[in-house]
Amino acid sequence: MTKIKAENIKKTFKIRTNGNSRNNGNSSNELLALGGVNLAINKGEFISIVGPSGCGKSTFLDLVGGLSKPNEGNIYIDGKPVEGPGLDRGIVFQQYALFPWRTALENVEFGLESQNIPKNERRGTAQKYLTLVGLNSFEDRYPYELSGGMKQRVAIARALAFDPDILLMDEPFGALDAQTREILQRELLHIWEETHKTILFITHSIDEAVFLSDKVAIMTARPGVIKKMEDIPIARNDRFEDDIRSSQDFVKSRYKLWELLKEEVVRAQQISGNAVSNFSKWETAK
Amino acid sequence: MGSANIVKQLKLLPQKVFAIILFLLIWEIAPRTGLVDPVFLPPASVVFSALYDLVITGVLFKHTSISLQRAFGGFAIAALTAIPLGFIVGWFKTFEKYMDPLLQTMRQLPILALFPVFILFFGIGEVSKLAIIALACFWSIFLNTVSGVLNVDPLLIKSARSMGIPHTGMFRKVVLPAAAPAIFTGLRYAGTVSLIVLVAAEMIGANAGLGFFVINSEAKFAIPDMYAAIVALTILGVVINYLLIGVERSVSKWKEEIVRS
User: A-B interface: how many C-beta pairs under 8 angstroms?
Assistant: First the structure.
């Protein structure tokens, strides 16, 4: 059953014109970020979108989240067009986006407050989800008292607390150190098994995408479209084995995806014009 | 807050009072040894005994309460107008862009230069003094509110929107708490400003209040009384500042680094 469907999504951005843009003869000051994205995600699936930086993958996630509107095309959730944000989708951002004046527990409660749930029940639900992410003893801490990994756990608990069908994750582990990242990836898989959410996950790490997803969509350089959708032939249970990353299926998938992605990365570098900085970012991400 | 904290505070006590005691000692010795003219600067002990007399006779209380009413009144008027206006200007960014040059210019206007204008409009009574204090306090509260609202992390707004909160909720649950520390910085500064402008206004046109008492004592050549009132004003300033810092801390306890002053 199709949970999320994107049909020919196009999105343009207005670029701020600075002094010398008149000279390069380019009268258009619109940037086509997404050039017709088509994607269908089934209920309960874990799909990752991988693409070079600046390809519009985060833009796409915002559109699914209802935080902005496409210029063309439609996004459907359960067959109904998306018209704005809603509690059927929970978003986890790379920079955590926790409210610094709220404790961990109060942060998790945030999404529950706009539904008319009594305070006690709200508290109980929030505690349950903090426990799920292993932070039950940190409920009274303010975000500045938590490490990056803990902050992201709070953010995940917050997105889960109002029990959305869909979890939208925008490079959620991108700002974390390598060890924390791997731990959280495993935890996310556990959470996914427990909660049966449909997850759309944005990353620039192929390794992460292969480890987590049922399917990985490769996005082209700007204007972004889905270049190819690859199935990852690894059973969910096998993913918790220690040497999974060196298993043949894993290595094969990673290689195949990297082949698909490579030329997009090169193209993205040409587009953005600052190849050096992007390349170094890619070297570390890969 | 525990007994350990109190012990820590006690250990810091010598460090905290050292400079003040040294200052008072010099103040006591310099006039007595003839280093400065004791008529123009009486020794600290003389000034403090004058202060004691003013407290006992109730004179100080009378002038202080009048001054406090003015300072607090002006401060309150400023806060009640500056915070809502600051939210409006900060929230509507285009409006802010148009307003900013005017606001930045107005801010540089030396407020006390306007006092004659206020007297012209409102007479020499309470209204002109309240108005000038309010105007002086207004700027720091207003501009801090504007920048507090302007600097709300857009990601927090995005995150709140994704959790489906309505516009009113956005204001109450995101913009207001995010801007609160900046607003309190403005309020604290305004507290200091209110005393400065109060004293000046009372010196120019008043027949009561601490500012009036300072200048009037000087005119009557009651020099110890003059210094006593200055000391009282200083103590008042310190108390007000500590009160505002206390409030500021309690609303910004979620901040990693608390502003110290």
Answer: 61
